[in-house]
Amino acid sequence: MVFAEPNLIADIADSAHHYPADLTPYVSQDIVNNFAPGSLASCTINGKLYCLRNDLAQNMLWYNTKLLQQFGYTVPTTWEDYQALGLKVAKEHPGYVIGAFGDANAYYEYFIGSGCPTAQMAGTETVHINMADSHCTQMANLLDPLLADGAIAKFGAFDPGFVKLGTQDKILMMVAPSWFGQYVFKPTYKTPNGEIVAGLPLRWSSESTARTGFWGGAAWAISSHSTNPKGAADIAIWMSTSNAYQGTAPTFPAYLPAAGYCQLKTIS
């Protein structure tokens, strides 16, 4: 079995590799129904279920409560508000940033997160990409002035230059996945406890709901060459659904009963 992002599993489901096995015979419909709506879409190709999502890794708006209070800013709720605040930050507090754009992950944060169809699986050997879609061009127009003014750093989130901004407490906010708190802000950017908050994902002002997109959110798959597919599938099911495992992880489970267990555990 393998632990990888669903798009990588899809890459090796083609006729040249034929790696992942169809899990449909081993996973009950009750289990499938308990996954978050849409979370298994990237695992399902031509009606066959090739993987089970471990976590959603949904994008959200992380923001520094201490700096926001110090600067007198409010948390943006729309992409348009986010842009306006970024331009204000560049003018009033140069050197502070509201995001990172320097590697492929930026497409997960901004473009996929705003509804831009950058890489939608349409089959085992077909990908739908349409950068002319209005959601793509709208996001490009939003980002250009922020990059030009320095409000969004031209670094990847793990580039030394951006890590330095983090350790210097220069990150006012950034769009990043749900696992960033435990795995990045705390160990990499050295953000003090209680200073960074995971806020709701941004939405376009013309839309009533937000699109989160994702960055990460790996899945469990098994090899089509396995000599014990039932045993491998049982492990994949346990890893993706068990409270004993999912309840200890600082990520958001794709399996909703496990997500509910995590929430109750946190409250208690």
| Number of E-state strands | 12
Contiguous low-pLDDT stretches (5 residues minimum) are: none
The spatial strand order of the largest sheet comes to: 1-12-4
CATH-defined architecture of the largest domain: 3-Layer(aba) Sandwich
| Main sheet attributes: strand count, strand direction, barrel closure | 3 strands, antiparallel
Label the structural class.
alpha+beta
Distance N terminus to C terminus?
34 Å
So what's the CATH class of the largest domain?
A: Alpha Beta
The count of domains is 2
- Order of secondary-structure elements: EHHEEEEHHEHEEHEHEHEEHHH
Strand content range: 5-15%
Helix percent band: 25-40%
Based on CA inertia axes, which overall geometry fits? globular
Cα gyration radius (Å): 20 Å
Number of helices: 11
CATH H-level superfamily title of the largest domain:
Periplasmic binding protein-like II
